[in-house]
Amino acid sequence: MSLQNDLGQKVKDAVKELYQVELPTVEFQPTRKDFEGDVTVVVFPMLRFVKGNPVQIGTQIGEYLQKNVAEVAKCNVVQGFLNIVIEDSYYLNFFNSIKAEVDYGYVKTPSTDAIMVEYSSPNTNKPLHLGHIRNNLLGYSVAEILKASGKKVYKTQIINDRGIHICKSMLAWQKFGEGETPESSDLKGDHLVGKYYVAFDKAYKEQIAELVDDGMDKEKAEKEAPILLEAQEMLRKWEAGDVEVVSLWKKMNSWVYAGFDTTYKNMGVDFDKLYYESDTYLLGRDVVKEGLEKGVFFKKKDGSVWIDLTDDGLDEKIVLRSDGTAVYMTQDIGTAIQRVTDFPDINGMVYTVGNEQDYHFKVLFLILKKLGYSWAEQLYHLSYGMVDLPSGKMKSREGTVVDADDLIQNMEETAETISAELGKLEGYSEEEKKVLYRTIGLGALKYYILKVDPKKRILFNPEESVDFQGNTGPFIQYTYARIQSILRKAEDVRSSAVETSLKLHEKEKELLKGIQLFPETVQLAAENFSPALIANYTYDLVKEFNSFYQQVSILGEPDAQKKQFRVQLSQKVGEVIQSAFRLLGIDVPERM
């Protein structure tokens, strides 16, 4: 049981003994910096149950706690706030209990129920872009946080590898490619295919302009441009299993997958299971038929099938067209059910998808609940806002979006420029510098994106993100490297227990309180699907360590016991930083 839980029960005991009242809850908050104390009991909510002066009530409860709780050193009351000072021995006992614990803060035994986290889910007609970076970083981090909180997790994506947009790239390559391959062009496969998607769009617009010049209405021209009709015919052939079209589709998709794999590796994300839309687009139709029989869906006169969600505050939604073909909703229904068939221990799913799809997921989750699936109660849309760049910062290959590969490379170059200006890399080999630039650049990118609440839109500034001061990844990485330097200089980081009679410096106690919050923060981040809670916790811990470092001598401390404790404390802070950053997918360098 945590100290706060124990204190809460003792406060309830105090109120029962002093006032003969059963208190349902006790409200705690951290003690304000300008008052003496480690934790504060808020007295005001108790006035609904206990009549009297809040200062007097707080004073009496404080006296009770000092007599009955060994960890309570003293108390003071400021208006309706009971500030409690905790004995140093409590924090030192806590430190002794966790200082040798590997992966402190992580739950070691996962639950039997699993959760599947979906992220990335790109189209195979172009490279991953800036939006995919936020998607991947969020999804991967949430999956890691859920694992650390004790969940069994499967990481997945559904690859959109079929449809008219895919055929556009294929057709343009046939027409204009002259047999070009990733090898012959020295282009990543996804960039090569994306190049022909752009080429299709260019040719399409030119044909529209020609038809309009010849007197055709623009709306009609957009539908009857010859290259679009050819792409539609190619899609029909693909759906019919035409050997030549399917062969081309497999070849060009294989180029894209190889390109994606390189980007994922560079980004530091991975997956346990891949789903492909070409395999799933027919799923769900049988489920709709079953739903019709159960009365979940209804059929209109034209034969199309719908669900009426007006009683749920939504509207009517089509799930099957009049010709019997599926819509995206049908496919998503079928895919969700298929995932539980593939992994029977799944009892929930997280969908990492931009906020423009908020309505879609409200409908999807509601339909699955109405179909009677128990796991549908544990579905979550990890909705996120757009990422913008300051204008003119980077040019993309296509001129409209920023490719993920370009941004990652730009971050490495930005880290190199800023690191060179700071002049802190004496004695590094060129290879060591290259690895460090990558670690700093990617750390800056990931932290800048993940420290923000997922629902908020982000303006991402590459130079600002690589600042070595403030709430940035490099600032935290630099502090970790500083701790490693301390440990290298310490002659001996002994593992023996710290004497609990040691008198703590205020800064030591603040650090211990910060370390104590890590397991709770992991659980809170998991419950809220929010890497931002981990990121900002880490920043607060690092600020506290730097304040400790500035005000308390570590290696220069003449008292051997104090020096040993401060070195061990620094080591544990470093371990917590590393564990927290691992949940964000960020590496920490041993030297900077």
TrEMBL record:
What residue stretches are annotated with the Arginyl tRNA synthetase N-terminal domain?
5-86
Q: Which residues form the DALR anticodon binding domain?
A: 476-592
State the span of motif ('HIGH' region): 122-132
> What's the domain of life for this entry?
Bacteria
- EC class: ligase
Q: Which SUPFAM superfamilies match?
A: Anticodon-binding domain of a subclass of class I aminoacyl-tRNA synthetases, Arginyl-tRNA synthetase (ArgRS), N-terminal 'additional' domain, Nucleotidylyl transferase
Matching entries from PROSITE patterns are given as: AA_TRNA_LIGASE_I (PS00178)
What keywords tag this UniProt record? Aminoacyl-tRNA synthetase, ATP-binding, Cytoplasm, Ligase, Nucleotide-binding, Protein biosynthesis
Subcellular location as annotated: Cytoplasm
Q: Pfam families from the xrefs?
A: Arg_tRNA_synt_N, DALR_1, tRNA-synt_1d
Entry's Gene Ontology molecular function annotations: arginine-tRNA ligase activity
| Database matches in PANTHER family | ARGININE--TRNA LIGASE, CYTOPLASMIC (PTHR11956:SF5), ARGINYL-TRNA SYNTHETASE (PTHR11956)
Q: Which HAMAP family match?
A: Arg_tRNA_synth
Question: Per its record, how is this protein called by name?
Answer: Arginine--tRNA ligase
Q: Which gene encodes it?
A: argS
